[in-house]
Specification:
The structure holds two protein chains of two kinds. By secondary structure, chain A is of the alpha/beta class. Helices cover 32% and strands 18% of the residues of chain A. Classes of the chains: A alpha/beta, B alpha/beta.
């Protein structure tokens, strides 16, 4: 019988059927970070349960760690130090590889895992972090879990998982210049809603997805959680194999070629049927930016705040979102003055993101009064950017150039943007107070963030490119 | 984990769609590496008059006297979206919440409820809205019943709605089972699987990642 990519990944990892639609699924890679992994390790230790196989477990310090120069265990977040220290101690005791604060490979979990070849096609990957779906871009079955589930994975090497339905999202056509994977995911969520993927494992497919480079595919899969999906994934192809060849944790030499031979089978059969299909024609898509407090509140950067009947949002939620964001219906996004610009996060902080943003910033200056920050997704990305001179481009333009981490994607009591400050951000969540109490977040691509930083208002990077 | 049987309790409507886990427990309220001490931070951004403060906001539903002893939340769609933080569920549980009734749940939040003895009951949005309207008439008296065995949400006014729940999570909740204990009984099957898999996909099995040069 014809099978989808998801069906193949599920079958390959199914240890036992447990009743109903729940199966015991073998877990190949477990990632932990200091924010939610710490409590899992601590609780496991308190219960006297060992980590069954530390060889498949990795840990990074990304969520609370400072991104300011000269950082150590102290953080701006009250109590943050304990999360770092306790994670380090518990991980050492369990024999787990930690990408610690000063490790040259430290970075955001979903940036360093592909970068180091930890996630591989066909692997099951879990992490107590909702954006674990990012890693599905490598042809893996990767999904976010809670800390108790992380304990279960650590103690048993498995999880009890309710099988989701399958949804294929086909992006067909060619993206116009200046339109990116971030715009694809925002377009999808704006059309089908922030709960549109609920109950589904999503496979992203179609010519526009095949055309995306690996880092862009990671961006696309990153926001499957903002679509309420179980996860997102993309069938691996030559780009995936080329990307992984020679990475530290990927197989080497002949073993790599044997693996690739298997990985080539990881695609949905041509006649496989999905429980649901969505088609999006991409040729006419524009760069997207959000106006409200849900990722589904996205419109073209050239557009306006929609009227309630066009917003896909109930009237009460619509009014609340507009009030929070300080906007009126019909307001032109391109006229909104901004206070800050942020480039970073597991969505858009990889070297290709930084290169594209730097191409816009080169020879230009951030508008007066705008605070602009760039946080590379990993120390590897940071070093590469510095080798290419990108750090100087960001600094010369007036951006802060940081150490890697999740940083100001979310507010944890430490650094934040101010109340009612308007931030255009390459991150993934524009929820109320996500980036700081009452901070107003507009999600967009790194290009749009860079162009907006220069203009001092939300701006279409394509206009700047044409002007250059 | 405690067993869940049948619960009849005060229910608080929070019908907004996309209530995220940052709203349920703001990150700034997660102050230590712990599953406890979180109830005071529950809905902190809405519940108190100032960030970091503890002065109750009288407008927030859980602060209203009629909703004292709330153990059920009536929520909007995509309840518990956003961050995977289980602290949201731990905070709800510590506060006393044992069931959330909503049209849909974010998947990680849903799983976290099952692992902590909270029933996530999916009902159509019009049913949730009708329950909320009835509750609001007299919150302290108009209590809602969640019968897990029957998979029904009922009221004294005669409402009766069935909700779907897979048999495995239902059993976990009804019997208050520890998932790890249960799974460890399958150790032989897991080890047999791993032996087969290791032969088929040797590259997945790293002996000690700490020794790999990066």
């Amino acid at each position: 019988m014809a099978r989808t990519l998801f069906d193949k990944l599920w079958a390959q990892h199914e240890v036992l059927a447990l009743g109903g639609s729940v199966s015991l699924i073998a877990i190949d890679r477990i990632f932990l970070h200091e924010r939610t992994g710490s409590v899992a390790l601590k609780s496991l230790r308190q219960a006297g349960r060992p980590v069954v196989d530390p060889g498949r477990v990795f840990c990074t310090m990304d969520h609370i760690v400072d991104t300011l120069p000269g950082r150590g265990d102290e953080t701006r977040m009250p109590g943050g130090r304990a999360f770092i220290v306790e994670t380090r101690e518990a991980a050492a005791e369990a024999g787990i590889r930690v990408f610690d604060v000063r490790d040259p490979q430290q970075g955001i979990v979903h940036v360093i895992s592909p970068e180091l070849g930890i996630v591989l096609p066909g692997a099951t990957v879990v992490c107590p972090d909702s954006h674990t779906c990012t890693q599905g871009a490598m042809g893996a079955l990767a999904w976010g879990i809670g800390s108790t589930e992380a304990e279960h994975a650590l103690a048993t090497g498995t999880l009890r998982v309710e099988k989701p339905k399958t949804l294929r999202v086909r992006f067909e056509g060619r993206l116009a210049p200046g339109v990116t994977a971030k715009d694809l995911t925002l377009a999808l969520i704006s059309r089908h809603g922030s709960v549109g993927g609920n109950g589904y494992a999503v496979e992203y497919a179609g010519s526009a997805v095949r055309d995306l480079e690996i880092e862009a595919r990671l961006t696309l899969c990153n926001m499957a959680t903002e679509f309420s999906a179980f996860t997102g994934m993309i069938a691996p192809d030559e780009k995936t194999f080329d990307y992984l060849r020679g990475r530290p944790y990927a197989p080497r030499g002949e073993a790599f070629e044997r693996a690739v031979a298997q990985w080539r089978e990881l695609a949905s059969d041509p006649d496989a049927t999905f429980d649901r299909e969505i088609l999006i024609e991409v040729d006419e898509l524009a760069p997207m930016v959000t106006w409200g407090t849900s990722p589904q509140h996205a419109v073209p950067v050239t557009g306006v705040v929609p009227a309630v009947q066009d917003s896909g949002t109930a009237s009460e939620a619509y009014e609340r979102a507009l009030k929070y964001m300080g906007l009126e219906p019909g307001a032109r996004l391109g006229e909104l003055k901004i206070d800050a610009a942020f480039i970073g996060s597991c969505t858009n902080s990889r070297i290709s993101d930084l290169r594209r943003a730097a191409a816009i910033l080169r020879g230009r200056r951030v508008a007066p009064g705008v605070r602009a920050i760039c946080v590379p997704g990993s120390m590897t990305v940071k070093r590469q950017a510095e080798a290419e001179g990108l750090d100087q481009v960001f600094r010369d333009a007036g951006f802060e150039w940081r150490e890697s981490g999740c940083s100001m994607c979310f507010f944890a009591g430490g650094e934040s943007f101010g109340a009612r400050e308007r931030v255009v951000s390459s991150t993934n969540r524009n929820f109320e107070s996500r980036q700081g109490p009452e901070t107003r977040t507009h999600l967009a691509s790194p290009e749009t963030v860079a162009a907006s930083a220069i203009a001092g208002r939300i701006a279409d990077a394509r206009a700047l490119s044409r002007a250059a | 984990m405690e067993k869940f049987d049948t619960l009849t309790a005060v229910a608080a409507p929070l019908l907004r769609d996309n209530i995220d886990t940052d709203a349920i427990i703001p990150s700034r309220e997660m102050k230590s590496v712990s599953k406890t001490g979180l109830a005071a931070g529950l809905f902190a951004g809405w519940r108190y008059t100032a960030i970091g403060g503890r002065e109750p906001n009288p407008d927030f539903v859980l602060n209203q006297p009629a909703y004292a002893g709330t153990r059920i939340i009536l929520g909007g769609s995509n309840f518990g979206c956003g961050s995977s933080r289980e602290h949201a569920v731990w905070a709800l549980h510590e506060y006393g919440i044992r069931a959330v009734i909503a049209p849909s749940f974010a998947p990680i939040f849903f799983g976290n409820c099952i692992r902590n003895g909270i029933v996530p009951a999916r009902l159509p949005s019009d049913a949730v809205a009708a329950l909320a309207a009835w509750v609001e008439q007299d919150p302290a008296v108009h209590r809602i019943t969640v019968d897990l065995e029957a998979q029904r949400v009922t009221t004294a006014a005669g409402a009766s709605h069935r909700f779907e729940l897979d048999e495995e999570p239902k059993a976990m909740l009804l019997e208050g089972l520890d998932a790890i204990d249960l799974t460890l009984k399958q150790r032989a099957a897991i080890e047999a699987f791993r032996a087969r898999d290791r032969a088929a996909r040797p590259w997945i099995y790293l002996d000690d990642p700490r020794t790999v040069s990066t």
